[in-house]
Write a structure and sequence with these properties.
heterodimer, A: 474 residues, alpha/beta, Rossmann fold, 2 domains, 6-stranded parallel β-sheet, 52% helix, disordered C terminus, B: 233 residues, 4-stranded mixed β-sheet, binds iron/sulfur cluster, LUD_dom (chain B), LutC (chain B)
Chain lengths: 474, 233
């Protein structure tokens, strides 16, 4: 399945990430800028914690009543002239979209950034039926031309520098200009404009569906989602089933949280709410509208202790706050969902077998949890994952990989200096004599297996050195 | 229109949630906090204009303020700066009311003005794609974020503020509200009263932009590359 992006073992992926200097530098400066943006916005509001509480309450209520709100949404979309298809699996979703493409005899499909279509592997499915698929988000387009997977959920081409981008444009599109970002973007604008105008079908993701009116909200800065929804006569929106809010009032709150937490903007340049098919006499917007609601493993998370992972609004604040992501980069996670949220949901969606190292790609410093605008207790979920991995007897291997993984990025000094300080308060309450003992709930089973050294006054680095010397035992 | 596979899908969700299906009677709870209502609470229209003006710098948008008598002049300056010859506008009674039609009439030798005309169908999009400037009147203006809300209808196509190279929003001062909260509430209440939301609602904040190349901000990607707001007292 395509959540996974490669077969290279975890350790090698990490080492590749660490060796790529440009990537590391880019990730670290992006993290810095995103974080500064988020923090400035939060401070300006003054009551950021109230906003986060509200965000959490809205997400909790919505997920608790997900069946009700999805029913309402589907009624409204249908009433407004749209078709709704509920897809249990990626295959069902892809098949439905393929059938539309075939029925329409569509040659060209333009897409606006959508994680879920990446997740289900829609592009490949559409190419199978002979459609040309064009990604229209600038970063996604660059990656598509270069056949490279995304490394960040907000700025997917973060790992590429402008010289590489110029080469890609030159090789794939005959570009002859310079490597200034403005000129590169102007070229993309001109090329993609032709694609927008010629497209038979537009495919979009969905930031928030609004149950009360059947509207699909899209949040972008480039204006590509607007092109994709305004120009082609057929539009298909593919949404993860949890991306829904009760009314416009909650949409507004979550959009405010999203744009602030993601990019430090009050609102992005374009927030668009598309409702069903266009009305009589309207020119822009689709004549035919389809909404595909995708489960693809999400329902396995409902009703479990991990339910709050479905509250995620994909803002990437946790990723930008994560010291481990900073050092290993997005590709190391081997999932289209990187960083702390990726480490939490990838094993839930696809099982532990292929992703059991992910919960260990964390220092448990809780920076992710603090950054999350809807207050998902990410580091607690990671601890719980580790416990389950131990319970499933996958622990020895997992631990070995963990040691290798940690050893790999542990050879870089700066991460340890920052980790030790952060980890302490997160684990504070459960430590005794520098050892985590009988942690409440999640920690229990792990500590039952082996006492886990808590990062004390000593740095993480010396902690791991110590750990390795002792062969991983205490 | 068709709804497929719904019952089995939603039954499964209910069973995962450990209860019967809920098909009616779900109410939103009283949220414990409502910070969105506190932003710029009690500000006058003039104070909101100041907030908007300040934020325009952040969103790379030129801000101008005038009254009805001065609008033609300001519009003229802006069009000149944008080298605007071919112009596309929505069909809106306010162009007449604010004297903009009169201005276009006077300028008809210099300007080629196309007013969105539903009967022309896709031809409108083609004109918008070639146009130098797209002009719309704001329906609701969000001071905090510098956002123009546009209810797209048969007379106000989405293309007008999307396809042309540059974008001008005329903002009657009375359309200003503190933030997106008030616009969302307005739409929610209309929906609750049985009015359908427009098929396309756009919240537009300045020109299009991207940070996808090495995190450099590039102003002007797929949508307009420049934007001006003209607030009219
Ligand atoms: S888990 Fe929270 S911080 Fe991370 S992407 Fe999701 S909403 Fe944002």
């Amino acid at each position: 399945m395509s959540i996974k992006i490669g077969e290279v073992p975890y350790k090698e992926r990490i080492q590749k990430g660490i060796k790529d200097d440009f990537m590391r530098q880019a990730v670290s400066s992006a993290q810095g800028r995103f974080r500064t943006g988020r923090i400035t916005q939060a401070e300006e509001l003054g009551n950021w914690e109230d906003w986060r509480d509200l965000g959490e309450e809205i997400r909790t209520h919505t997920l608790e009543n997900l069946d009700y709100y999805l029913q309402q949404l589907s009624e409204q979309v249908s009433r407004r002239g749209g078709h709704v298809f509920f897809a249990e699996t990626a295959e069902e979703a892809n098949q439905y979209v393929k059938d539309i493409i075939l029925k329409k005899q569509a040659k060209k499909v333009v897409k606006a950034k959508s994680m879920v279509t990446e997740e289900i592997g829609l592009n490949k499915a559409l190419e199978e039926v002979g459609a040309e698929v064009v990604e229209s988000d600038l970063g996604e387009w660059i990656l598509q031309l270069d056949e490279d997977p995304p490394s960040h959920i907000v700025t997917p081409a973060l790992h590429k520098n402008k010289q590489q981008i110029r080469e890609t444009f030159a090789k794939k599109k005959g570009y002859t200009g310079s490597d200034t970002p403005e000129e590169l973007a102007a070229f993309a604008r001109e090329q993609l404009r032709q694609d927008f105008l010629a497209a038979d079908v537009g495919v979009t993701g969905c930031n928030f569906a609004i149950a009360e009116s059947g509207s699909i909200t899209l949040v972008t800065n480039e204006g590509n989602a607007e092109m994709v929804t305004a120009l082609p006569d057929t539009v298909i929106t593919v949404m993860g089933m949890e991306r829904i809010v009760p009314t416009w009032e909650e949409m507004e709150v979550l959009v405010s949280l999203l744009t602030r937490a993601a990019v430090g903007q009050k609102l992005t340049s374009y927030i668009t709410a598309l409702t069903g098919a266009r009305l009589d006499e309207e020119v822009d917007g689709p004549e035919e509208f389809h909404l595909v609601v995708v489960d693809n493993g999400r329902s396995k998370i409902l009703g479990t202790e991990f339910q709050s992972a479905l509250h995620c609004i994909r803002c990437a604040a946790c990723i930008n706050a994560c010291p481990v992501y900073r050092h290993i980069g997005g590709h190391a996670y081997n999932s289209i969902y990187p960083g702390p949220i990726g480490a939490v949901i990838t094993p839930l969606l696809e099982g532990y077998e292929d992703h059991k190292e992910l919960p260990y790609a964390s220092t448990l410093c809780a920076a992710c949890t603090e950054a999350c605008p809807v207050k998902i207790p990410l580091h607690e979920h990671l601890i719980r994952h580790r416990q389950i991995i131990v319970e499933k007897n996958m622990a020895p291997t997992a631990e070995k990989l963990m040691m290798k993984g940690f050893a790999a990025w542990g050879s870089n000094p700066s991460i340890y200096n920052m980790s030790a300080k952060m980890a302490k308060p997160a684990l504070g309450p459960w430590t005794k004599d520098g050892m985590i003992e009988n942690g409440p709930g999640p920690l229990k089973a792990w500590t039952d297996v082996r006492d886990f050294y808590a990062p004390q006054g000593q740095s993480f680095r010396s902690w791991f050195k110590q750990r390795q010397k002792d062969g991983g035992s205490k | 229109m068709s709804i497929q596979n719904r019952e089995a899908f939603l039954d499964k969700l209910a069973s995962r949630l450990g209860r019967e299906r809920r098909t009616a009677g779900v109410e939103r709870p009283q949220w414990s906090v409502t910070p969105q209502d506190e932003v710029f609470k009690g500000m006058s229209q003039d104070e909101l204009v100041e907030v908007l003006e300040k934020h325009c710098k952040v969103i790379h948008t030129d801000f101008k303020r005038t009254d009805r008598d001065g609008l033609a002049k300001v519009l003229n300056e802006t069009l000149e700066a944008y080298e605007g010859k071919l112009i596309i506008t929505s069909k809106d009674a306010r162009y007449q009311e604010y004297g903009v039609n009169e201005f276009f009439e006077e300028q008809k030798d210099q300007l080629d003005v196309h007013v969105w005309e539903a009967a022309l169908g896709k031809e409108n999009q083609k004109i918008a794609e070639r146009a130098d400037v797209g002009i719309v009147f704001s329906d609701i203006t969000l001071a905090e974020s510098g956002t123009v809300t546009s209810f797209n209808t048969k007379d106000n196509g989405r293309s007008i503020s999307l396809l042309p190279r540059t974008f001008i929003a005329i903002i009657p001062k009375s359309t200003l509200v503190p933030r997106m909260t008030q616009a969302a509430r307005h739409i929610h209440q209309a929906q609750a009263n049985g009015e359908d939301v427009p098929s396309y609602v756009s919240f537009i904040t300045g020109p299009s932009n991207s940070a996808d190349i090495e995190m450099n901000l590039i102003v002007g990607v797929h949508g307009p590359v420049k934007a001006t707001y003209i607030v009219v007292d």
